[in-house]
Amino acid sequence: MDQIHSSPLNQTLTLPCGSKLKNRIAKSAMSDSLGDGVGNPTNDQINLYERWAKGGLGLSIIGEVQATPNYAEKPGNLIVGDHSDYDQLKRLARAGATDGAQLWLQLGHAGAMADAPISTPKGPSALDLPGLTCGALSLEETRHKALQ
Ligand SMILES: Cc1cc2nc3c(=O)[nH]c(=O)nc-3n(C[C@H](O)[C@H](O)[C@H](O)COP(=O)(O)O)c2cc1C
To answer: What residue owns the CA closest to ligand 1's atom 23?
Structure first.
């Protein structure tokens, strides 16, 4: 037990942006596909992030959170916007921050990797590679997305 407490992994870490993590254990961004299909967190997802936080990590990152449903990477992505269920998002935020963990969102735009049945694969440039095709976002679409 002493070894765990004296381990460098257990030391606090202050990031250049000023955020202070309680230790150096992080769950990297993972697109977990646990959203409810219209962009809101499910109870299973909330329970999972609470469990990870109770496991003692300092930072937990949710992968591929979308600002618009148009370019989602998977049907289970979280989508934060006007139609979000903010009560459920707050529950997720609180659960993921249990015991002093920090819960961060990775904002995602899947580009050519957007899930074609539910999205419009579009990226900064058009791509036509084997298994990877997408159209180009117009300047207007880029501006609109940046403002969302
Ligand atoms: C199931 C799964 C989902 C992932 N989703 C994302 C994601 O949404 N965003 C991202 O930047 N990386 C994602 N990754 C990459 C991980 O964040 C990590 O960088 C990668 O797994 C390398 O770390 P490792 O060698 O410890 O596995 C994902 C990885 C896995 C296994």
So the answer is: 28
